[in-house]
Design brief:
Elements (H helix, E strand, L loop, with lengths): L1 H6 L5 H20 L5 H5 L1 H10 L12 E5 L7 H7 L4 E6 L2 H14 L4 E5 L11 E5 L4 H8 L14 E7 L13 E4 L12 E7 L5
Parallel strand pairs: 1-2, 1-4, 2-3, 4-5
Antiparallel strand pairs: 5-7, 6-7
Length: 209
């Protein structure tokens, strides 16, 4: 938990309480339904929570922004971002029912009112969003195909509407067909070794009505 305060010292008491509850909630649910590896549970705040919040170093979501988290798994990056941005609306989607069950229980345990969930494939989601976030669920080519028609026309941020993707490693080949993508190195924001190869990729998407 201290690592969150190190990089986000201005969070409210409510947010501190919610972040502090995450470890207990995930430990408890992970015993019933394994959504986070045992090793990662011990380093939950570094490997999952702070990693998710890397997106907040790139953009500050405005109130009433709509964000979809695709392939949310156990709720990352969506749940940490929903804590940090309580006035932003998050829609967490995953095709695996047991993962969404855990997400729903964690959301309920934290009392988050700005999160909805869907058990299903992202292609079936009919709504549009300002941003679509995810954590390395597929190659960008595939991910782009899934979500390219799901972005709002109206822009409310300096960063153009589109995909904000947490990825690691060398992305040159993966992004060769996406010249408008911008890569942000998380090692510029967080000094732990874990973030040495971790990145945030922003890919603006045009609205397709």
């Amino acid at each position: 938990m201290d690592i969150i305060l190190k990089y986000f010292p201005n969070i409210t008491e409510t947010q501190k309480e919610q972040f502090a509850k995450l470890q207990e909630l995930y430990k408890d649910w992970n015993l019933k339904i394994n959504v986070v590896s045992r090793k990662d549970i011990d380093e939950l705040y570094l490997r999952h929570v702070l990693h998710s919040l890397g997106i907040a170093k790139i953009i500050q979501f405005q109130p009433n922004t709509k964000v979809m988290d695709v392939g949310t798994g156990g709720g990352f990056p969506g749940i940490p971002l929903a804590i940090l941005f309580p006035e932003t609306k998050f829609h967490l989607v995953d095709s695996i029912g047991k993962k969404i069950k855990v997400v729903n229980e964690v959301v309920s345990g934290l009392g988050l009112e700005n999160v909805i969930t869907t058990h299903g494939r992202v292609e079936e989601v009919k709504d549009t969003y300002d941003f679509i976030v995810s954590r390395a669920v597929a190659q960008m080519e595939t991910f782009h195909r899934w979500v390219k028609n799901k972005v709002h026309k109206k822009q409310n941020h300096e960063l153009k509407n589109g995909i904000i993707y947490l990825k690691g490693g060398d992305l040159i080949d993966e992004l060769i067909n996406f010249p408008k993508a911008t890569i942000y190195n998380l090692s510029n924001y967080f000094n732990e070794d874990f973030f040495e190869t971790k990145k945030v990729v922003h890919l603006p998407l045009k609205y397709k009505g």
